[in-house]
Design a protein that fits this description.
The protein is α/β, with parallel strands linked by helices and 440 residues long. Helix content is 40%, strand content 22%. The chain folds into 2 domains: 217 residues, 3-Layer(aba) Sandwich (Carbamate kinase); 141 residues, VC0802-like, CATH 3.30.2130. The strands form 3 sheets. An 8-stranded mixed β-sheet has the order 3-4-2-1-7-9-10-8, with helices on both faces. The protein has a 6-stranded antiparallel β-sheet with strand order 12-13-11-14-16-15, sandwiched between helices. Helix 1 links the parallel strand 1 and strand 2. Bound molecules: adenosine-5'-diphosphate (ADP), aspartic acid (ASP) and magnesium ion. Magnesium ion binds next to loops.
Length: 440
């Protein structure tokens, strides 16, 4: 069985939903849907108003969003019976959201509000398929998708519950389920973080040993550079799991960073496909490498670099441990690290506890901080025995100040830290030299 995940833009209008219904009919399997595009953002906004005890602000957004959904119901269905059912569905969900404007609003209520987007899109799609005479059933994600006490998915629970549900609806053919939403270890409604529908798809893939996980979105696969910043990017046909994971982690928004691991552990191919151009080849992510090829570039914003210069590092054992312990104590993950005999530079993308971290690091030496940086990550087959790839990368960036360079942590990436102001130039230049044959 295949798992097909459709993102927000793929279900973002009545026409898009009809197109997706056509695709689903051709490839039956488990269909994971995100909320319609913009919905989760609106639900976040509603929650922010409610946190600030501003029900009027929240109601304004709720009403606007509800109108969008009534219009959607009007356009999606042909028969008045189905249109009526869809409108009742919309009324039910929005009445429910409105109940949260009247009372105490906490993290718990917020998660319930955020879950409404995926609950609505899946119910709409199921109705749409049913109107077309296609038999489909909903697998409620809240009945099988679950995280444990560490907020990590619980694969044993997911596998057991999901397979039981599938067994109960053995001959359904098409199963529709919600991406992103889950229950936590205490049975409360929760989610897998923004963009987490991709994660839902690969967790399901792992749970049922799917033949393939397909991530359908609005672009024809992983491009060799970020199309939001660079013109003339082109799709990469094949990626190794590790290459895809590095790209996703370092900013290629097409894929959620957590999505690759369950697929990789279970060796399930992941295919990135375009709903707007279903015949396009897309990108196949698997265990295969293409020898010596640099595949793609991605960038991660809002990075802070921290340098600790210490005479005591010289010949000292345990120095790195003590430094890293400080970051651990403040629950701040480190992305890049480079060391020299007298010091260490590392980067973080969450600077919430920066002041406390810096205060503690000062015990070890002089500390300096560079905020407003970007990690540029170049990905491909970069075994150290291969020659020349580092030279091409550095040559492409010869006019740009490089704050850190990191290679050797994996066979698949070289990371470089530049100023945010230089990001655009760095990405463009890397495309020119690495993919468009510029030689000077
Ligand atoms: P969905 O809503 O389907 O999950 P996303 O917006 O999360 O879609 O991801 C698709 C978007 O990712 C594309 O429209 C594109 O702008 C962006 N993107 C960023 N980097 C890349 C890349 N390297 N290749 C393809 N798309 C990318
Ligand atoms: N709807 C959620 C979001 O916008 C999850 C997803 O789209 O993957 O973040
Ligand atoms: Mg996405």
């Amino acid at each position: 069985m295949k798992v097909l995940k459709f993102g927000g833009t793929s279900v973002g209008s009545a026409q898009r939903m009809k197109d997706v219904a056509d695709l689903i009919r051709k490839t039956p399997g488990i269909v994971v849907l995100s909320a319609m595009s913009g919905t989760t953002n609106s639900l976040v906004e509603i929650s922010e108003y409610l946190y600030r005890k501003n029900p009027d602000g929240a109601n304004e957004i709720i009403n606007k969003l509800a109108i969008k959904y009534y219009e959607h119901a009007e356009q999606l269905f042909t028969a008045s019976e189905y249109r009526q059912r869809a409108k009742e569905l919309v009324t039910r969900h929005f009445d429910y959201i409105r109940t949260f404007t009247k009372d105490l609003f906490t993290l718990f209520e917020e998660r319930v509000v955020l879950a409404q987007g995926e609950l609505l899109s899946t119910a709409m799609m199921n109705l749409c398929l049913n109107e077309q005479g296609v038999g489909s059933v909903i697998l409620p994600a809240l009945d099988y998708m679950r995280t444990n006490k560490n907020a990590e998915p619980d694969p044993v629970y997911i596998r057991e519950k999901l397979n039981k549900l599938l067994e109960e609806h053995k001959n359904a053919g098409i199963y529709i389920t919600q991406g992103y939403i889950c229950r936590n270890a205490y049975g409360e409604i929760d989610n897998l973080q923004r963009g987490g529908s991709d994660y839902t798809a690969s967790l399901i893939g792992a749970a049922i040993h799917a033949e393939e996980v397909q991530i359908w979105t609005d672009i024809d696969g992983m491009h060799n550079n970020d199309p939001r910043f660079v013109a003339n990017t082109s799709p990469v046909r094949r990626l190794h799991f590790e290459e895809a994971a590095e790209l996703a982690y370092f900013g290629a928004k097409i894929l959620h960073p957590t999505c690759i691991l369950p697929a990789k552990l279970n060796n399930i191919p992941v295919r990135l496909l375009n709903t707007l151009q279903p015949e396009a080849q897309g990108t196949l992510i698997s265990n295969a490498t293409e020898k010596g090829r640099i595949k793609a570039v991605a960038a991660k914003d809002n990075i802070t670099a921290i340098k600790i210069k210490s005479g005591r590092m010289l010949l000292a054992t345990g120095f790195l441990r003590k430094v890293f312990e400080i970051f651990e104590n403040y629950q701040t993950p480190i992305d890049m690290v480079t060391t020299s005999e007298v010091g260490l530079s590392c980067t973080i993308d969450n600077s919430r506890r920066l002041d406390e971290i810096v205060d503690e690091l000062k015990k070890f030496g002089t500390v300096s901080v560079d905020a407003g940086m970007v990690i540029i990550c170049v990905v491909g087959d970069m075994k150290w025995e291969n020659v020349g790839f580092e030279a091409s990368i550095v040559n492409a960036l010869k006019d740009i100040p490089l704050r850190m360079i990191s290679y050797g942590g994996s066979n698949y990436n070289v990371s470089l830290l530049v100023r945010s102001a230089d990001k655009q130039r760095a990405l463009e230049s890397l495309s020119e030299y690495l993919f468009n044959n510029r030689k000077d």
